[in-house]
Amino acid sequence: MGNEQTSQEEQREIMANSGDDQTPIFNFGDDNLPKNSMEFPSNEEFKRKREHHKTMSSVTSNPRNLNNKEEKENKKSLFGKNEIPREKKIDFIESKDNEKEKEEIKENNEDQVPEKFERRKGRSISLVEKRKIGSQVFKDELKIKVNINALIDEVQGLPTMKYKVTNKIGEGSYGAVYLAYNLFTKQKVAIKRIVKSEENKIDELELKNEIDILKKLDHPNILKIMEFYSSEHSYYIITDYCANGELYDQIKYKYNENQLAVLFYQIFSGLAYLHSNNIVHRDLKLENIVITEIENDKKTNNRYFWVKIIDFGTAKFFDKNKKEKSVVGSSYYIAPEVLKKNYNEKCDTWSVGVILYMLIVGRAPFDGKDDEEIINSIKKGKYNTEHPKLINSSSEVQDLVKNLLQIDVQKRFSAVEALKHPWFKKFNAKYLYSNLDDDTIKTYLNRLRHYQINSKFQQMVWLFIVHNLQENQETKEILKIFRLFNENDDGKLSKEELYKGLIKYFDKKDIDKEIDDIILLLDTSNLGYITFEGFLSGCINKMKILSEEHLIYAFNFFDKNKKGRITFEGIKGYFVNDKTTENAFKSIYNEIDTNRDGEIDFSEFKNMMFGN
Fold it and tell me: What one-character-per-residue DSSP string does 404-446 give?
């Protein structure tokens, strides 16, 4: 297929319709675009934009290289005479065996659950009760690990009847980003479209890598992915929408240390979580920190940013016993040991040190008239420690910068060490972004204490709904409690941290009795800790989110055959790890399938969610 023909098909592939919300907004193969449609840019435009792409994946061979000077020409620097150009990449930012199956389910129906504990008086048995009963099938059910990764669906085709595009919000070297909303839940999302082409092969690999990593992450300061589409000509990645743009857009303003401490506490919190999961980002920069909310404090007149880390295309899982060799990063931000092809995860803390220096001083610590000079400056590791703006800052922040821009990797701060620095304590950074009154905290924690789940499937559905929730006042307040309890700020709430938090507000004897039950319900994958979304599912007002729209949306997700029925074969992949867990999950399935027809219809699904 020629480039011209492909370009025309790409323009027809996806369009926004401003009519009825129920009209498909993506129309593949429509030869006549309506006047109000929004055309996507052609391959030629993507190819032209690529020439401006500045991120470096390889100094010598990758299209993202340090020798590309085109973007620097004729641009006025925001940092003074030595320019720090914006990276042009845009990132945001979301059967035939049916009868046999029915017979197998029916055969395993009656003998899986002790008879006296079958449904009684319209009430299901909770997971806590099942643990107390102690039958083998219940023990096996409690061993089931919910496959959190499966919540992010990969769909073949277009996001046809699910999202309505409102406008383009950004464009990069290999695609565009659009603001859209989910027609079922009304949640705002960002849709990043990447065109499949020979020119974009590297970017396609990065995209798949980014999705694989994001699917494994659950942290409030890291971009959240909803789902991923692959059509004949394009990829579409759906993520949460970060309404206030990149941190780069805010560099023209001056910030006091109080504001900076709150900002960098979040960045290091997200980074500590990444590193604890053996993930190194490798491309942290101003453009890859996005702002979800700007909060104005009327008492202090401070503007606080709530942020997320984005762009995991060049991130990777690392082995702590091995050094990384690939040269990956961006000029100004790349660590000296990366250039020497011998580095570990601390290359990320160097990059954060560069960002901190920039926001204090107003220019890069390592600069030059071209990329070669910049790289030589970075290799030397020497920067202006006597700049007036740095000298006039607190001794604490000067010390933090010094320990982040430490050329000796062994002496350089890790993300966890940075979080413990006196600078954050001096400005009470943790308290400022987790402050909430006691009555509000107790309201949410009381919900947590009374949280009940009857099966691993119900638990999975809860997580799916919570994962796809739009951020609101309630979710923001629950996040503050999570941060308050998470003492080491690694994004993983341990049993000890939860216990310490709870006994501050409730009687210790009561919490002693309840803590194991709470952990059972919140640690959905038996990880040994609670993720933020697990915590959120226990604290959220369930009656508010159990709307018909949310239930239909969740039901459609698990209805893999799109026939209005959830089948055992269709969903066991979310839970089943071996023969033991398969038998246990059959028991769960049978408990929900009250009419014993071998399938779960919407009525049965709804009853399960309401605990009936």
Answer: HS-SSTTTSPPHHHHHTSHHHHHTTHHHHTT---HHHHHHHHH
Return the CATH superfamily for domain 247-427.
Transferase(Phosphotransferase) domain 1 (1.10.510.10)
| pLDDT single digits (tens) 267-305 | 999 999 999 999 999 999 999 999 998 988 887 888 899
Q: Which amino acid is at 272?
A: A
What positions carry a catalytic annotation? 283
What are the domain boundaries of the chain? 1-71+155-241, 110-144+434-612, 247-427
Angle at 323 between CA 318 and CA 329, to 5 degrees: 75
Query: In terms of Cα–Cα distance, which of 273, 283, 144 is closest to 220?
Result: 273
User: What pTM, to 2 d.p., does this model score?
Assistant: 0.78
Distance CA 123, CA 46 (A): 57
Spell out a b/e string for 221-255, using b for 16 or more CB atoms within 10 Å of the CB, else e: bbbbbbbbbbbebbbbbbbbbbeeebbbebbeeeb
Which amino acid does the sequence have at 549? E
Backbone phi and psi for residue 184, each to the nearest 5 degrees, phi listed first: -85, -50
CATH architecture of the domain formed by 1-71+155-241? 2-Layer Sandwich (3.30)
